[in-house]
Design a protein that fits this description.
Elements: H1 3-13, H2 18-37, E1 42-44, E2 48-55, E3 58-61, E4 68-71, E5 74-81, H3 83-97
Antiparallel strand pairs: 1-2, 2-5, 3-4
Helix pairs in contact: 1-2
């Protein structure tokens, strides 16, 4: 699902205009992004937790040329799915594989 599909679904299910739904989705995403930038953890009960992890600097390789390159330290987003999401995915797999 892409952002425009999410906006359309929210607008349809809640009888909103697409512009209003777009503002809602953008506000939620901007708020989550802002919290992660400031180092906060975002917990969406029943869905999962978003947090930031720090990666150490390392020596990598350019896959095209094989030349070693220095990769700087960086912060990356990390998502851990909640129990209900994991259960829903695993129950779905069990039903389709039987």
């Amino acid at each position: 699902m892409i952002k425009s599909e999410l906006v359309a679904k929210i607008a349809e299910q809640n009888e909103l205009s697409k512009a209003d739904a777009e503002r809602i989705v953008s506000t939620v995403f901007d708020t989550i992004t802002g919290a992660l930038i400031s180092g906060d953890r975002v917990e969406l009960r029943g869905f999962g937790v978003l947090s930031v992890r720090n990666r150490k600097p390392r020596i990598g390789r350019n896959p095209k040329t094989g030349v070693q390159v220095n990769v700087q330290a960086k912060r990356v987003p990390f998502f851990k799915a909640g129990k209900s999401v994991n259960d829903a995915l695993n129950n779905r797999l069990k039903k389709t594989s039987v």
